[in-house]
Amino acid sequence: MARYSELRSFIHIAQKGSFAAAALEEGVTPAMLGRRLDALEKRLGVKLMHRSTRGLHLTELGEQLLERARSLIREFDDMEADISSGARKVTGHLLISAPAGFGRLHVAPHALGFHQLFPHLKLSFNLTDSLVDLVGEGYDMSIRIGPVTDPNYVAVKLWSNRRVVCGTPAYFAVHGKPTRLEQLAEHNCLAFTAQGGQQRGWTFQRDGRPVAVRVGGNLACNDGELLFAWMRQGVGIGWRSTWEIHSELQSGELVTALDEFALPDYDIQAVYPQQRYLPAKVRHFIDYLKAVYQQPDYW
């Protein structure tokens, strides 16, 4: 348990940036934390933090240890919570990241139903279109749309999804419907951009290979709902996920183009760090979302 206490204290000191703040978090004295850090550095034979009157600063090795220590402590706590409850009561804190639009409509709204099944589990959601570092930022899991290529992550498919080019019938009546990828250059493409600059392009499949097509238009933003609203008003065309436009396609308010070039798999997936022990809280939330999404009338 000494190693566990040393690692946990090291994490708190690094996160809080001072012995006093970390000591308040743990309910011990700053001197006790200082001794734990000294013992950890002595046992490892390395310097983990530089201490000065200006504050605490992690060394390069300290940064490496912090990332791995967070994962180890979280895994240990999850395992202990599951075993101590006999796997009958799921406890702890589940921290989830999800895309802003999708998370707002199809992840966070199911928190209440899930919480009724597991009332002792605390849930926290971070809805962002930024790609988060699950391990480095302490997330248990994330919901992602599209392929996951990082070998350090496990991806579980929740539901099928594609990304398609779409617009209003009125827009296509005036500007024509593209039949070749090169014709996208002739259209007002409403682009999603992360930081004010044009995105890399829209990705398609041609002759069995992915191809990115540069697009341009007079409107771009980092909010998917705003782009969706512009598209529905006939301002231009968009590259949207089928989960987002399903009802509009059913009603005929929007129609698709270039379907033969759409990526075959841009699926909705649950992603969590590769680890020896999968926490019950993660497993149960993934199973719950899969059951919800597979209901015949859900989408």
Low-confidence sequence ranges: none
- Structural class based on helices, strands and sheet pairing: alpha/beta
Q: Going across the major beta sheet, what is the strand order? A: 4-3-5-14-6
Distance linking N and C termini: 49 Å
Q: Could you tell me the mean pLDDT? A: 88
Beta-strand fraction estimate: 15-25%
Q: Determine the number of helices (DSSP H or I, runs of at least 4 residues).
A: 10
Number of strands: 14
Helix content: 25-40%
Order of helices and strands: HHHEEHEHHEEEEHEEEEHEHEEH
Rg calc: 24 Å
Account of the protein in words:
This protein has 299 residues and is of the alpha/beta class. It is 39% helix and 22% strand. The chain contains ten helices and 14 strands. Strands 4-3-5-14-6 form a five-stranded mixed β-sheet. A three-stranded antiparallel β-sheet has the order 12-7-13. A two-stranded antiparallel sheet has the order 1-2. The longest helix has 25 residues, at 60-84. The model has no long low-confidence stretch (mean pLDDT 88).
Question: In summary, what is this structure?
Answer:
It contains ten helices and 14 strands. With 299 residues, it is an alpha/beta fold.
Observed structural traits:
single chain, 299 residues, three-stranded antiparallel beta sheet, five-stranded mixed beta sheet, alpha/beta, 14 strands
What order do the helices and strands come in, and which of them pair?
Layout: H1 2-16, H2 19-26, H3 30-44, E1 49-52, E2 55-58, H4 60-84, E3 92-98, H5 100-106, H6 111-117, E4 121-127, E5 141-145, E6 153-159, E7 163-167, H7 169-175, E8 191-192, E9 202-206, E10 209-213, E11 220-221, H8 224-232, E12 238-241, H9 242-251, E13 255-257, E14 268-273, H10 280-293
Parallel strand pairs: 3-4, 3-5, 8-11
Antiparallel strand pairs: 1-2, 5-14, 6-14, 7-12, 7-13, 9-10
Helix pairs in contact: 1-2, 1-3, 1-4, 2-3
